[in-house]
Amino acid sequence: MPMSPIEHDRRYGELDQVLRAYAGQPADDTEDGPSTALTAYLRHTWHTRPSALATAEQQLREYSRHPPGRLRLRLGEFYPVPDVGLPEQEIQDWLRVLADHIKRSVEAGEVPPPSVPLTHWEWHARFPEVAQFLGGWFSQDMPDEFDGHDAAVADYIATTDLQLTARLAGELHELLALNLDESGYALAWAELGMEVDPPVPYSPSGWLARAAEQLVDGGFRADYGTSRLDE
Hints:
This protein is an all-alpha fold. It has helices spanning 5-20, 36-48, 52-65, 70-74, 91-108, 120-126, 128-137, 142-145, 149-159, 162-176, 182-191, 204-217.
């Protein structure tokens, strides 16, 4: 019978996260070095969920040693490895190579340094609320739904939980801290789901900074009360 969600996550949850990192990326890992996709997974996971790396290594290695048969895959009893562009007979060895790289990274403490995201997966993993904001409120239908960019931002603020609004503001400041050039920011917001141009006269980074200010202005303001000096 098909796996339950909890069984899937217990047996293949982190393996699935590793393989999702290969969306749109070549599976060109070798014994000598990891691919761009695996490096992106290692960087993000080291800096956010380092304990998950041991789980990833174990799940990858177990799957490489005991791949399921086609019948059990069709019955939904095992995780089906997505198409990564490799011949079926090479998948087991490739998974073992991934496990070896992750094990080496953990045992040697080899942490990829902070960097601009290198893959579509890494952009979304690092800036999930920005992706939700840009993809949900600034699709190509935005001009038909809102009277301009400010109206779209105002709708986001009005309809989104304050904690998520605060998270988005933080992610926007982190995105601006990458200190990219304008072509870099144009690429970033395209990767994150923005489908319309910034309003005149803003550049991509200028509009992101304005959106961050609007989120803060429209969000929570602490009530500091009256100090004794004011009495």
